[in-house]
Design brief:
four-stranded antiparallel sheet; Immunoglobulin-like; 2 domains
Amino acid sequence: MFLSAKTRSALLTIRNESGDTLRFQLNVFAWDQSPQGEVLLSPTEDIVFFPPLLTLAPGEERRVRIGTVTPVASSEKTYRIFVEELPPSSKPGRAQGEAEVRLVTKMGIPIFIQPDNRLEGTRVQEMVIRRGLLSFQIRNTGNVHFVPEDIRVKGYGPGGDTLFERRLEGWYILAGGHRSYELEIPKGDCAKLKTLAVEVGGQQQSVKERLEVPPSACD
């Protein structure tokens, strides 16, 4: 969900596609990411919404109004609103003490308050290989979030031949943040390496960084 100085609120539609009556509770948090990709949540009053509780009959849908009460900043602000299904009340006719196991749904929906002027930038940095382990960072130098859709690590021999290629999983990198990665180089290829390359691709930008592999990299 994208909010801005011009779009201060939006509607979220929740639909019950099951055959049972369901109850939902909504909560919102400020959202940050650790360098390892861990979601970090903290209480916030920047986002308001109504209603906070819903009861939906089978096939019924309701709209939740979500808005921001915080001013737009020079860098994107990020939040997550969680729609959590509440455990059902006991069904009529169920024997007292009778056990029931039921999975409930919890969905986290990103909310982005975008700056007036969007700046996008990505950089691969801190490329190091020690004892056959490559580490590097992907840094978001822009003021809006970036999702690396394709992260590839390629190893080349002295003649430029490709020794190996690995694809890593991408995830949100929020404005001004970075994500750290580690990759173990195959032992059979490590001693032959001349160059390593990290290629990062997204919807609107791509970057590439190379590292000349030192002779002691696999020791």
